[in-house]
Amino acid sequence: MRIDLHSHSSVSDGTDRPAAVIEHAVAAGLDVLALTDHDTVAGHAEAAASLPRGFTLVPGMELSCAHEGASVHLLAYLFDPAHPELAAELERVRRDRVVRAEGMVGRLRAEGVAVTWERVRAIAGDVDGGDVVGRPHIARAIVEAGAAEDVPDAFDRWIGSGGPAYVARYALDPVRAVRLVRTAGGVCVLAHPARGEGALTGAVPDELVERMAAAGLGGIEADHPAHDEAERGRWRGRAADLGLVVTGSSDDHGELTGRRLGCSTTDPEAYARLVAPATGASPIAG
Fold first, then answer.
1. C-alpha pair distances (Å), 222 with each of 5, 178, 264, 273
2. pLDDT bracket for residue 198 (50, 70, 90)
C-alpha cells in the first residue's frame, strides 16, 4: 500500500483541481492520499466525489502556526471541521490571509512591481467558498509582471521573510493548535520540520517539538522532498525519542512542484497507528 499524507489543490496554493489531484495520485500508483490544503477543507467534497474504487482519501489540512515570529506548519487529519473553536480559528486565519495579501500587493506596487489585487485573486481562484489567497499566488503574479524569473525567485526577491514586500499574518501557536485539533477529534503531524523560515533558521526547535508532543502531536513528517538524508535521519530519531509516528509525503502542489505525488510515502503500519485515535472523521474509501 502506497500512502502520501500531504498534498495541495487549487483550493489553496496548488495548481490542480481536487478531482485532478486524485487523478494524478491514482496515476502515480498511490492507494491513499491526504488532501491537506492550507487552512481549509473546501476541496474535500470534490475530491471524495472523484474517488475510484479501492482508493482512499484522508480528509486533512495544513494549519498555519507560528512560533517566535516564524512559520510552523501542522498537518491535521480526520478532525471535525464543524467544531466551533476550530472553525472560528480557521475563519480568522483565512480572513487575515486576505489582509496580508492585500498588504503585500500594496508594497509591491510601491516598489514599482505591476501586480494587481484583481490578478492575484484570479490566480487564487474560488472553489466552493474556500478561496485561500497565499504567497504562491502573489509570486506567480510577480513572475507574470516580469519582476522575477520564477516562483522561488519571487520569494527570494520580494515576499520571503524579510523581503521588501513581506507582511506578517495571524497564525496559531503550535501547541495550542495541536490541542485544538485533538479536541476536534483529529490527529496531527509536524510538517517538514527542517524547512522553516526566519527566526527558526530552517528547523523547528526541539523544545517546541517536545511541548507539541506533550500536547498530543501524533507524528513528524521526516521523509519530505525538502529534507536531505541527514535531516530525515535526525527527525526520524526525534520521532523515535518522543514515541511519535514517522510519516513520508510529497507536499505536492501540482505544476509548481513538478507533480511529485508519491515521491515520499508513509509506511502502512505507521499510517494505521497515526489515524487510530481519530474520532472527528473517517478516511473515505472509493
1. 12, 18, 10, 16
2. very low
Residue whose C-alpha cell is 477543507: 41
Q: Which of 109-113, 118-122, 274-278 has the lowest mean pLDDT?
A: 118-122
| The pLDDT value given to residue 126 | 52
Q: Is 10 or 23 the better-scoring residue by pLDDT? A: 23
User: Do 109 and 50 belong to one domain?
Assistant: no
For 184-272, where are the E strands, in sequence order? Answer: 187-190, 219-223, 245-248
The C-alpha atoms of residue 80 and residue 248 are separated, in whole angstroms, by: 24
166 within domain boundaries? no
Q: Which domain holds residue 61?
A: 3-90+171-285
Residue 91, amino acid: E
d(CA 174, CA 68) in angstroms, rounded, equals: 11
- Residue 3 carries which DSSP code? E
CA atoms of 210 and 233, how far apart (whole Å): 18
The region, left, alpha or beta by phi > 0 then psi within -120 to 50, assigned to residue 160 is beta
Chain position carrying cell 490566480: 123
